[in-house]
Amino acid sequence: MSQPASFGVLTVSDRATRGEYEDRGGPAIREYLERVVKSEWSDVSRLVTDDVPEIVSALRELCETCCVVITTGGTGPAARDVTPEATEQVCEKMMPGFGEAMRAVSLLKVPTAILSRQTAGICGHSLVINLPGSPKAIAECLDAVFAAVPYCVDLIGGPFIETHEEHIDAFRPKKK
Ligand SMILES: Nc1ncnc2c1ncn2[C@@H]1O[C@H](COP(=O)(O)OP(=O)(O)OP(=O)(O)O)[C@@H](O)[C@H]1O
Ligand SMILES: Nc1nc2c(c(=O)[nH]1)N[C@H]1C(S)=C(S)[C@@H](COP(=O)(O)O)O[C@H]1N2
């Protein structure tokens, strides 16, 4: 049997870090995983400011042990929105289809979805996925890509992830 999957959950928010509001992004990601992931899993959660070295260091730490690291926040056009830059710094391969698919679905909900530069990439044996900071964006975006996540994790040497089919029907191309 393969190892249980460990998911990294990284909230990037100046205001949540300062305590100006309670972080609702991290809990929303964990709730999503609770609903969708059927196989055994655990999470490692972190909260950092919108600062490239801090984000890079948290991503590197999480990618050491997690097969998927999901970030929320810091994807927009403002000066301190730098999560995609930090993601590019740690990933050896970018997976631009994730950002494209999430924006396409989000644009059907809100015109400002185009303002998110969210992306994804591979760091060692870990898939990093950026989500916008808005807590309601989390399920909207993950629903658009999660069916491809288990196979991506297979391909990068991670554990076998099973999903609850009524929520997400994980797609694995059949081997000949
Ligand atoms: N971690 C979070 N928890 C709760 N609400 C959040 C969080 N991050 C963002 N939001 C909310 O989502 C909306 C978009 O926020 P914004 O784009 O300013 O966030 P950010 O730049 O990712 O984070 P911050 O401004 O805190 O550094 C706002 O209404 C904000 O209150
Ligand atoms: N699905 C979805 N995507 C969304 C949004 C949203 O509410 N729902 N907000 C948008 C807005 S208003 C911004 S500014 C960008 C970047 O947000 P961030 O800087 O918090 O990551 O994400 C966009 N993507």
TrEMBL record:
Annotated EC: 2.7.7.75
Residue ranges annotated for the MoaB/Mog domain, each copy included: 8-152
Entry GO MF terms = ATP binding; molybdopterin adenylyltransferase activity
Q: Which family does it belong to?
A: Belongs to the MoaB/Mog family.
Keyword field: ATP-binding, Molybdenum cofactor biosynthesis, Nucleotide-binding, Nucleotidyltransferase, Transferase
Q: Which PANTHER family match?
A: MOLYBDENUM COFACTOR BIOSYNTHESIS (PTHR43764), MOLYBDOPTERIN MOLYBDOTRANSFERASE (PTHR43764:SF1)
SMART domains xrefs: MoCF_biosynth
Query: Gene that codes for this?
Result: mog
Q: Name one GO biological process term.
A: Mo-molybdopterin cofactor biosynthetic process
Q: Which domain of life is it from?
A: Bacteria
Q: What is this protein called in UniProt? A: Molybdopterin adenylyltransferase
Q: Which organism is it from?
A: Mariniblastus fucicola
Keyword Transferase on entry: yes
